[in-house]
Amino acid sequence: MQQINKHMASSAHPNAPCAACKFLRRKCIQGCVFSPYFPPEDPIKFTNVHKIFGASNVSKLLNEIEPHQREDAVNSLAYEAEARLKDPVYGCVGAISVLQRQVLRLQKELDATNADLIRFSSNQNILTNPQSSRNYPQNPHALPPNYGANYSWNYNP
Ligand SMILES: [Zn+2]
């Protein structure tokens, strides 16, 4: 309840009905369960959620969860509703599987690039390319001249 009042107080239009009450053509009473999450300036958010889930189901769900979790729940419903309207078959699962395939492809690409890097760096060491000492400071020639003077350096050439 306190959370709702705080949200209502911070609303840009304290007297305007929320997007849900405006759409449902009813009076937006104080403590309206939709009001903190469906501001009048974003009517699409409510119409999407209403089309997919139904206002009474959303109201029931919001009343069943803790007030501090309601904003996350509404954002999740709004995301899913928008995805479901764009893709009636898969909804947000479509986006998730596209991203999962992308992660797998990029992981393979990264593995291949890392393998290339290891191959190139070992070739460079064989050719004793002067650049390798700059890129690989573990090479003792790249260390400051006095490094290891007071330190037992365990290097076998
Ligand atoms: Zn309302």
From TrEMBL:
Region Disordered, annotated ranges: 129-157
Coiled-coil residue windows: none
Pfam family, one: LOB
Polar residues bias: start-end ranges: 129-138
InterPro entries: LOB
Domain LOB: start-end pairs: 16-117
Family: Belongs to the LOB domain-containing protein family.
Protein name: LOB domain-containing protein
Organism in which the protein naturally occurs: Mikania micrantha
